[in-house]
């Protein structure tokens, strides 16, 4: 059973298009090899007993061609809680969507729109293949066999997995690349064997994950107890292992997990990722908004978890929170988002936390900003203040 789930809330008219969209989303999840219980679909009638405020949520509001609006009070409450809501209309937004959602960007349902709506949901939950990244932290002398086993299992589930012996190219500065790759991951999977924290590098990896606010899954070896400090972080989730979790009860250096334990760990990694990605995005958005407000810049959070700013000169800027290192795929995703939502004359800034990202990457991103006229550029966290202090 997954502890944390992505919550998809269904509001508005009870129309048959709902089922087609839900089926498409489930199909996309199946393509990612995610378990069926991964997505929790919540109707407006069950929201009081099923909705969890501390778990990532996204809502679809289906409009009504006759203007018979439903679930307005629930919609108001979700907006107040900060839940992103995507209005879906058929012919005319103004007459089919209630006034409470008039400032939200909607999407018109039509031929071929099912895939687009599904993509928006997946993007809201950061579930595209290229962003599902996990970092395995372990002590080689104690858990190499399990580390390789988990690496292979997570790869099969379409994770992009970092394992030091498999993921760092020859000639790269080992420690710089390791910190860089950790900065770019969604979850750190720690194999907490008896001697794990006795290694200064393993201990540093644990601390770095906390500093970056990355979700941590701790697998605690049998006959090993950890201090409360090691498991008290709100982003650290411990799982105590038993000898029966290992083939032939062998949890020594060459031991491996039984298959059912591997399956459970994969679900746990995805579950923790569900909560952590939303939290990291929210933290980035909140920090940017706070600095903007301090500098009298008016930015607005949109349903798809990005911000917009309309400048006095008529220009519009879109700020997209980007977890990890901005890549070409981040730019492509921004372009898709721009097209889906009907934005034309805009510039886009991918905002990101640059802590521990390798200097060569930061220099490369700055160089791209300076040498290309493309309307998609990056903005690192250390530059938020100076950027927002500029007169527009």
Task: List the keywords.
single chain, 392 residues, alpha/beta, Rossmann fold, Trna Endonuclease, Chain: A, domain 1, 3 domains, five-stranded parallel sheet, globular
Describe this structure in words.
This protein has three domains: 6-124, Rossmann fold, CATH 3.40.50; 129-275, Rossmann fold (3-Layer(aba) Sandwich), CATH 3.40.50.10140; 279-389, Trna Endonuclease, Chain: A, domain 1 (3-Layer(aba) Sandwich), CATH 3.40.1350. Helices cover 41% and strands 19% of the residues. The chain contains 14 helices and 15 strands. The longest helix has 36 residues, at 259-294. It is globular and about 65 Å long. It starts with 5 loop residues before the first strand and ends with a helix.
Which topology of the largest domain does CATH recognise?
Rossmann fold
CATH superfamily of the largest domain: Toll/interleukin-1 receptor homology (TIR) domain
Q: Largest sheet at a glance?
A: 5 strands, parallel
Q: What's the CATH class of the largest domain, please?
A: Alpha Beta
Mean pLDDT: 83
Low-confidence stretches: none
Radius of gyration: 22 Å
Helix content: 40-55%
Strand order of the largest sheet: 2-1-3-4-5
Q: What structural class results from the helix and strand content?
A: alpha/beta
Question: What gross morphology would you assign?
Answer: globular
Provide the number of structural domains.
Answer: 3
Number of helices: 14
Strand content: 15-25%
Order of helices and strands: EHEHEHEHEHEHEHHEHEHEHEEEHEHEH
Task: Report how far the terminal alpha carbons are from each other.
Answer: 50 Å
CATH architecture of the largest domain: 3-Layer(aba) Sandwich
């Amino acid at each position: 059973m997954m502890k944390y789930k992505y919550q998809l809330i269904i509001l508005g008219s009870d129309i048959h298009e709902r089922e087609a969209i839900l089926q498409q989303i489930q199909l996309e999840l199946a393509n990612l090899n995610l378990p069926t219980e991964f997505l929790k679909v919540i109707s407006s009638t069950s929201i009081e007993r099923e909705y969890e405020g501390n778990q990532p949520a996204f809502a679809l509001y289906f409009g009504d061609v006759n203007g018979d609006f439903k679930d307005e009070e629930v919609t108001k409450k979700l907006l107040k809680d900060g839940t992103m809501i995507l209005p879906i209309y058929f012919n005319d937004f103004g007459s089919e969507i209630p006034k409470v959602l008039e400032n939200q960007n909607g999407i018109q349902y039509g031929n071929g729109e099912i895939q687009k709506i599904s993509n928006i949901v997946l993007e809201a939950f950061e579930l595209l293949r290229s962003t599902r990244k996990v970092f395995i932290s372990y002590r080689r002398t104690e858990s190499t066999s399990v580390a390789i086993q988990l690496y292979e299992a997570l790869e099969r589930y379409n994770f992009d997995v970092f394992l030091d012996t498999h993921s760092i190219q020859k000639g790269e500065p080992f420690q710089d690349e390791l910190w860089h790759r950790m900065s770019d991951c969604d979850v750190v999977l720690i194999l907490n064997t008896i001697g794990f924290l006795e290694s200064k590098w393993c201990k540093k990896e644990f601390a770095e994950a906390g500093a970056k606010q990355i979700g941590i899954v701790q697998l605690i070896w049998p006959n090993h107890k950890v201090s409360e400090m090691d498991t008290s972080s709100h982003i650290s989730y411990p799982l105590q292992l038993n000898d029966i979790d290992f083939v032939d009860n062998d949890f020594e250096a060459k031991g491996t997990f039984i298959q059912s334990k591997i399956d459970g760990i994969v679900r746990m990694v995805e579950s923790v990722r569900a909560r952590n990605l939303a939290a990291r995005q929210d933290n980035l958005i909140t920090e940017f908004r706070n600095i903007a407000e301090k500098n009298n810049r008016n930015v607005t959070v949109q349903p798809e978890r990005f911000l917009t700013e309309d400048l006095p000169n008529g220009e519009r800027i879109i700020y997209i929170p980007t977890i990890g290192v901005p890549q070409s795929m981040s730019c492509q995703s921004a372009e898709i988002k721009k097209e889906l939502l009907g934005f034309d004359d805009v510039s886009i800034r991918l905002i990101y936390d640059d802590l521990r990202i390798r200097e060569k990457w930061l220099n490369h991103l700055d160089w791209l900003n300076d040498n290309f006229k493309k309307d998609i550029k990056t903005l690192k966290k250390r530059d938020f203040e100076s950027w927002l202090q500029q007169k527009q």
